[in-house]
Amino acid sequence: MTSLMEMAQAVREAAGWSRQPKSDQDWVEFEVADLPPFKLIQKGQRLAAFQADLGAWPFEENEADQLARRLGRLASGAFNSRRSIISVTSGRLGLHLPFDPSQLELEEVPKICASFLNDLEWWLRNREVNLV
Question: 91, 8, 19: which is closest to 48 by C-alpha?
Fold first, then answer.
């Protein structure tokens, strides 16, 4: 079984990041320039995920409705090309890319991270609502 710290180290080495990430028993947090911090989490032997907080869900009802419609259209249009999942939990917008580490070789984890970071950049560029 691949451990959380082994996966985090593989990501860090593949990306060439020198900064040691913050960590706890169930997560490792990476900080990359121009992106929000993101985490690699592991729950048991068969579930791991990259995740990022994309900000607060709008409080104003009209703005929240417009954002939900926009994100729904984007999610349905990107369904076949993006593996990450956009979600709203506890008033926060998040992005997650789950995977089963028991089904992967360690060298595949950095590739999953790269895919997640591409998705993260895409969602950050496309989440804004035009309120005009």
Answer: 8
